[in-house]
Design goal:
Strand content: 25-35%
Strand order of the largest sheet: 5-4-3-6-12
Shape: globular
CATH class of the largest domain: Mainly Beta
CATH superfamily of the largest domain: RNA polymerase II/Efflux pump adaptor protein, barrel-sandwich hybrid domain
CATH architecture of the largest domain: Beta Barrel
Radius of gyration: 20 Å
Order of helices and strands: HHHHEEHHEEEHEEEEEHEE
Number of domains: 2
Distance between the termini: 32 Å
Number of strands: 12
Structural class: alpha+beta
Number of helices: 8
Length: 268
């Protein structure tokens, strides 16, 4: 039976887990298939997705959740796999129930408003979409006001935080204060990857983790670093950098991000 706490968790995830009618797949169905098969590869195949697209969806879901919904299982006698956490199963269960109730509400509104569909599609356009590969949901930990700009530190969970430098006007416009829920957005090309420790850098943010995926392209490659708390950071670096740094699955790495490259956003 779904508890009120689990329902509240699902409500908080509603703007983040997209369930779009008419698409070949949605994030919620992906979670359900991962839970049923114990394999992200099998889940992707069943949904007609590529393995890479499935992992990107999983990483986005984990980054936008207060707790990890999906986790890797270490290899054993029968090999490794992927599974939902207990929190993930509860959120999915509560979410499906809320989805059913939402459909009933929309049907009733359509019955009393002849032009409801027109307004509904207009409202849906207000949903935030961004090209930033890295999207983290967190809470404002501190705000330090300077002469011109302000430094806002966002707790993204798992013991990690991100510092962003924005203008005073932006702090006021976003109505930021300690405890505010906020999105931190970072484009993948803005992330610098290093495997060395013990040196100083001008980058305000250092996120340490382990490389879990590394895919080379024609000139550049994509490197995914999983943090200790289950969230992940995507970086676009040159193929030469991948080779010179020895980047591959299992290698310890650090993502360096300048505070001026962190964009903050809030729900309207």
């Amino acid at each position: 039976m779904t508890t009120q706490v689990e329902t509240n968790a699902a409500v908080r995830m509603l703007p983040k887990l997209k369930i779009t009618k008419g698409r070949r797949w949605d994030h919620l169905e992906l979670l359900e298939r991962i839970d049923a098969t114990g394999s992200i590869s099998s889940a992707a195949t069943l949904m007609g997705m590529s393995y890479k697209a499935a992992w990107e969806a999983v990483e986005a879901i984990n980054n936008l959740s207060e707790q990890a919904l999906v986790e890797r299982k270490a290899g054993g006698q029968h090999g490794g796999g992927t599974t939902l956490t207990t929190y993930g199963r509860r959120v999915v269960g509560a979410y499906r129930r809320l989805e059913q109730e939402r459909e009933q509400v929309l049907k009733k509104l359509a019955q009393v408003m002849d032009d409801f569909d027109e307004y509904y599609h207009l409202i849906r356009r207000f949903d935030m979409k961004t090209s930033a590969r890295n999207q983290f949901l967190g809470k404002v930990k501190s705000i330090k006001l300077g002469q011109i700009n302000a430094e806002v530190v966002v707790d993204i969970g798992g013991g990690d935080s991100l510092a962003a430098v924005i203008t005073h006007d932006s702090v006021d416009h976003l109505k930021l204060e300690t405890g505010s829920e906020v999105y931190a957005l970072i484009k993948a090309p803005w992330v610098i990857v290093t495997t060395s420790d013990g040196f100083k850098t001008s980058a305000r943010n250092e996120l340490h983790g382990t490389v879990v995926r590394c895919q080379e392209g024609a000139v550049n490659g994509e490197v995914i670093i999983e943090l200790a708390g289950g969230k992940s950071v995507a970086a676009i670096v040159t193929n030469d950098s991948i080779k010179s740094l020895g980047l591959k699955n299992g290698v310890k790495a650090c993502a360096l991000i300048k505070a001026s490259h962190v964009i903050l956003a809030v729900n309207a």
